[in-house]
Amino acid sequence: MKLAVLGGGGFRTPVIYRAIASGVTRTRYDELALYDVDSARLERIEAVLRGIDETAATTVRHRTTTNLEEAVEGADVVYCAIRVGGLEARFVDETVPIAEGAIGQETAGAGGIAFALRTVPVVTRIAETVDRCAPHALFINFTNPVGLVTEALRPILGDRVVGICDAPEDLCGRVARALGREFGELSFEYFGINHLGWLRAVRDGERDLLPELLDDDERLGSIEEGRLFGTDWLRSVGMIPNEYLFYYYFRDRAIDAMRQGHVRAAYLREQQDAFYSGDAGPAASLEAWQRTLTERESRYMEEAWDGRETERAQIVEGRLPGGYGGLALGLVDSLRGGDRAVRILDVANRSSLPFLDPEA
C-alpha cells in the first residue's frame, strides 16, 4: 500500500506518521510519500519523524518530495491537507472580515469563503493529477473548508473522494460518555457537513437516548457543547450542534471576542514561525513539536470561550490532540477490512436529506 500525504510539511503530519508507526492501523503501508511545495518545512517535519522513530524503535518507510506527480504516482490512498497561501493568507481571511463586522474564521463566514475561493482551483489541479497518476486511489480530503472542497472535487474523482473531520465523531464520543455508554454500542444520527452539522438522535436499537440527555442538566452540562451553548439553549433546539455553529448562533459574541484580539491565525503564525525556524536533532525536534502541539490545542476556539478561561482549560484537557489522523487511518482499515464500523463523512447526499440536491 502506498500512502501519499499532500501537505506533508504541515504541522499535523507527524500525527499520521505516529499512528502508523505505533501500529494502531491494521493496514500495512509499504510506502509513505510526503509532498509539499516548501522543502524547508518538509525538512523540519522530517526531523520530527526521525524523533518518532527513535522513540517508537520503529521505522516507517517514507520519503519527501516537492514533485506532486512523483508523490502520487501509483498511490493507493491520498491524504490532502494543504493550506493555500499559508498562515499569511489565513491571517488576511480572518482579519479583513472582522474589520467589516463579519466572521473571520477558516471555515465559517466570510473568512471561510475567501479560503475556499483561493483553495478550490489548486485542489482541482491536484485532483486532476491524482486522476491521471493514481486512477484507483482513495482521495481523503482534510483541506478546509472540507465540505465545499470535497464537493468541488467530485466532478473529477467521483465517489473516490471523501471528506473527513474529527469534530463530528468527537461530539458523538462525548455524548456517549455522558450517557455512560460505549461509543460502539450506539448509533448516531448526525446530519450536515463537517463544521456545519447537528446530532439529532442517539439510538440504542429503536430507542432514542438524546431526549434523556437533553433533560438532564448535570449530564448535558458535562459535555463541551453543554457548556459552550448552555443547557437551556440546547433544549430549545432539541439537538446538539457542532461546536463551530457557535459562529452562527452567537455571531455577535464571536465577533466581539475576535475584535478583542482572539484571532487564531495571528497566534498560529507566531507559534509556527518559531517552530519551523528551529533547527535541531530528532529528539529535540520531536520535543519541540509536542510542546507546540499542546500549546496550539490549549488555544483552540479561544474566541468562543472568551471570559471563560477556566472552563476552556478544562475542555482542552479532555481533548485528544490530532485525533483526525487515527480517524483517517481507521477509515482505510474499515474499507479494506470490511468491518461494520460507522463513520461520519462528507460524501454525496444521495437521498440522506431529500430537500438537498443528490450530489450536494
The amount of beta strand, in percent, is: 5-15%
What is the averaged pLDDT score?
90
Compute the number of helices: 17
Low-pLDDT regions: none
- Helix-strand makeup class: alpha/beta
Distance between the termini: 31 Å
Main β-sheet, in a few words? 6 strands, parallel
Indicate the radius of gyration in whole angstroms: 20 Å
Q: Can you give the helix content as a percent range?
A: 40-55%
- Shape designation: globular
Number of strands: 10
Secondary structure elements and their pairing?
Blueprint: E1 2-6, H1 13-21, E2 31-35, H2 39-56, E3 62-65, H3 68-72, E4 77-80, H4 86-99, H5 109-133, E5 138-141, H6 146-157, E6 161-163, H7 167-178, E7 187-193, E8 196-204, E9 207-208, H8 210-214, H9 217-220, H10 224-229, H11 231-237, E10 240-241, H12 246-249, H13 251-259, H14 264-276, H15 282-298, H16 309-317, H17 323-337
Parallel strand pairs: 1-2, 1-4, 2-3, 4-5, 5-6
Antiparallel strand pairs: 7-8, 8-9, 8-10
Tell me about this structure:
It contains 17 helices and ten strands. It is an alpha/beta fold.
Give a concise summary.
51% of the residues lie in helices and 12% in strands. The protein is α/β, with parallel strands linked by helices. It has a 6-stranded parallel beta sheet, with helices on both faces.
